[in-house]
Amino acid sequence: MNITVIGAGQVGGALALRLADAGHQVVLAESKEGSASLTKTLARSSRLSAAPIEDAVDGAELVILATPYGANASVIGPLAERLVGKVIVDCTNPVGPGLSHGLKSERSGSEVLQALVPGASVVKSFTIYGFENLEDPEFPAYNVKPTMMFCGDDLTAKAKVAQLITDCGFEPLDVGGLVQALHLEHMTLLWVRMVRLNGHSPRLTWAALRR
Ligand SMILES: NC(=O)c1ccc[n+]([C@@H]2O[C@H](COP(=O)([O-])OP(=O)(O)OC[C@H]3O[C@@H](n4cnc5c(N)ncnc54)[C@H](OP(=O)(O)O)[C@@H]3O)[C@@H](O)[C@H]2O)c1
Known about the structure:
The protein is an alpha/beta fold and 211 residues long. The protein contains 8 helices and 10 strands. It has a single domain (2-197), classed as NAD(P)-binding Rossmann-like Domain (Rossmann fold). Strands 3-2-1-4-5-8-9-10 form an 8-stranded mixed sheet, sandwiched between helices. Strands 6-7 form a two-stranded antiparallel ribbon. The longest helix is centred in the C-terminal third of the chain and has 17 residues, at 181-197. The protein is globular. The site of NADP nicotinamide-adenine-dinucleotide phosphate has 25 residues, from helix 1, helix 2 and helix 4.
């Protein structure tokens, strides 16, 4: 799949590397003048390339957004026309003071993003754990893969994202429509508070057990 990553930091960089290793054509969007993270990520794999953000978006079937939440409107707003018909994987989390929900739990960041780009299909994913687990999703002591939850309203877009989740080494778990994004964002806060404030290992992930 032709994939563009906007924001090649801890999250975007890890996903870019894993997806390129899995055989996807991954382009890092030059979203910021002189981006240190883009230069660093590019140097980590000869499979990656970089392009001006407009060209990178035009050439992509699917765009991974991994910028700070506060940058979403300024980064994505001007690209709305170019993003029509494309899938946007929203990896961003609105985080407020004291690790609270950045939009006061009134609406999810993903729904705000979807309203900015009505012609695209937003799918929220890769948000419920720290980037350490995106870089290395292996848990050899267990016979299950860590679960990666995702949500969105477009079934075709979700099928594409589910494949990428599998390619990144996780078990995809569809948790419903984009209305579920608020709950995933709270789940992120739960994980972050457990790990960053309460001493749990950053290599803590969830698994789905069924019977
Ligand atoms: N860190 C985690 O474990 C984690 C896990 C799940 C989800 N998330 C979410 O994923 C998103 C990215 O987090 P991260 O930890 O990967 O952050 P990060 O390492 O700081 O990377 C952010 C990326 O966005 C770029 N960027 C920053 N401001 C920008 C702007 N105004 N316009 C365009 N590009 C901009 C940065 O470029 P420069 O390098 O040039 O600054 C960098 O490439 C956040 O929304 C975060 O909440 C984080």
